[in-house]
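Hi F.,

I've been meaning to write this up properly since the lab meeting, where we talked about keeping a consistent format for the predictions we share between groups. The idea is simple: the sequence comes first, exactly as it goes in, then the structure tokens exactly as they come out, then a line or two of notes. No screenshots and no reformatting. I'm using this chain as the first example so we have something concrete to point to.
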Amino acid sequence: MKKSLLCLVICAALITVAASAAASEYTVAYSENQTTGYMWHYTVSDDTVLSVTDEAYQPPESSGDLVGAPGTHRWVIRGLKAGEASVSFYYAWAWEETLPEPDVTYTFSSDASGALKLLSATGMPEQYMSGTVTTRLMENPTTGYGWTVKVEPEGLLTLVRDAYEESETADGALGAGGIHTWVYQSEAPGTATLTFRYVRSAGADAASELKLTYVINQDMSVNMMGLDGDFSMYVP
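Output, unedited:
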């Protein structure tokens, strides 16, 4: 995908978020790298129900960050009156007049006092959050193979999502495989490596081995530093 190297191993998907407890506001914080010419845009389906305050782009906090490292863009969403509305986010050229399909869309309900409930999120918000690492790889359990993951060193990244979704085929064919998704949350600054091995059983020789290296900054934002292996075979 056009945004960053990370997008070689991730793509948009549909996720459903359980309705959360009502809150007075909802904050969205995404990575943004203005050196690439791309920036976040948003639209509101009904601005009489929801308001969005753009808290602007913030560059990386640490002076030790690499040149061209992404910063963080934040928005605060608030309810105005009873109703239901959506906020869509797009990562596109700063000068684009026509926006592409949204990368993420949040749908909220608001009560008369403005208290919000998040009803759903279309897309994969985790892949744009500055403190998370999202990886998506093709997998076919019917062949006997599956991915194992090793994180080194321990304590820098915590697994928060590990899910396999079977692919839908037009003819309903069996054995088509699906997509395996992992989401990790940053916990401490340092350099972490994720090693993915495609094997039939633990300890067996791997059909493929893929490595991703990340630097976790003092502000817990994450930057990809290395990519090793033939990811092109497994990109969804």
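Notes:
The chain is about 0% helix and 50% strand.
Residues 5-125 form a domain with the Immunoglobulin-like fold (CATH 2.60.40.2020).

If this format works for you, I'll send the rest the same way.

G.
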